[in-house]
Each structure stands twice: as C-alpha cells, then as structure tokens.
C-alpha cells in the first residue's frame, strides 16, 4: 500500500471523508473550528457542503487528503491559526506571536485504520503548511496517557503520534476532549 497525500481541492473526495451520508444533515463538515460559531450555527444542511465546496476551490484549500491509489482514505484539516477559532480560544494558549498554522482534525475512513494513514496525514499536513510559508505548525491532540480513546473523539489526534512526527510539547491547555486533556504540540518549520 502506497499512501499519497495531496491538497484537498477535490470536493467529492473531501465529501467522502467529512460529508454526511444524507446531504441535508447538519454535521460538522470539519467547519467547527474553521469558521466563527455564529456562521457555523447558521449554515444548515446542504449549505454546509456548499461552503466546503467553495473552500476546496480556494488557495490554499482547507487541508490535505490521503489516497490509497485513487481512493480517498484520510483527511487532515490544516490552516493558518489566524483563520480558525483557535485564534480566539481561551482554552488553547498562544505560545508567541509567530503566525503558526493549526492542524486540528485527522480522520481515517473505517476499513483503512491501523495502516499508518494518520502518520502520513500528519506528515502531509506539515509539508502543506511548509509549502505555504508557515514558520511553524501546531496541533492540539489528546494526551490520553495510553488510555483508549473513542474513535469518534480521536479526530484531534493523539500526543504520541505528533511526537513521532517531531512535534514537541509547547504548552498545556485547559481544553478537554472525551475526558482527556489536550496539549499544544508544535513543530518549527524554519
């Protein structure tokens, strides 16, 4: 299996990873941290998908996709922190004034897990941020201490996976997800 990670500019493939089974459903579409909460609450049903379709046409697109051949098997949301709700977060601190990028969601399709795809997505997101001039990239994974994490809440990533990718602990946070604290991990790209 050879996994290729590419910019998420193909809306149909993004839809495969983060879109709902029913086009009218009011699910995340990985917008919760990307847009202001007021807009997130206003976008209902198919308007959410239309918003993401527009993001896929922008430069840079909203993240990266992992492919096994031509099949999309993974997604990672990555963007400048200043363009996300993390820019205004009271729970996730700012380490300094560096214009960092944020990596906040990693999703691998069922049937493709436990094959290293999340590691490829982290590496691909790092390269994507670097290619767009990011001086550093941050992630806010769970510090589960080795405890099992429910797969639906593992989207933030697990600390050890970011450590394997060269990220270092930069700060503790007051954010908790699925009963586990989140930590701020950072990788300098300069």
Topology:
Layout: E1 3-7, H1 11-18, H2 37-42, H3 46-56, E2 63-68, E3 71-80, E4 101-108, H4 117-131, E5 136-139, H5 159-164, E6 168-177, E7 180-188
How many helical stretches?
A: 5
Beta strand count: 7
Strand content: 25-35%
> SSE order, as H and E?
EHHHEEEHEHEE
- How would you state the average pLDDT, rounded? 95
Computed structural class? alpha+beta
The gyration radius over C-alpha positions equals 16 Å
Question: How would you portray this structure in words?
Answer:
This protein is α+β, with helices and mostly antiparallel strands. It has five helices and seven strands. Helix 1 (11-18) crosses helix 3 (46-56). The longest helix is centred in the middle third of the chain and has 15 residues, at 117-131. The chain is globular, with a radius of gyration of 16 Å.
Give a quick precis of the structure.
The protein has 190 residues and is an alpha+beta fold. The chain is 24% helix and 27% strand.
Which properties best describe this structure?
27% strand, single chain, 190 residues, 7-stranded mixed beta sheet, 5 helices, globular, alpha+beta
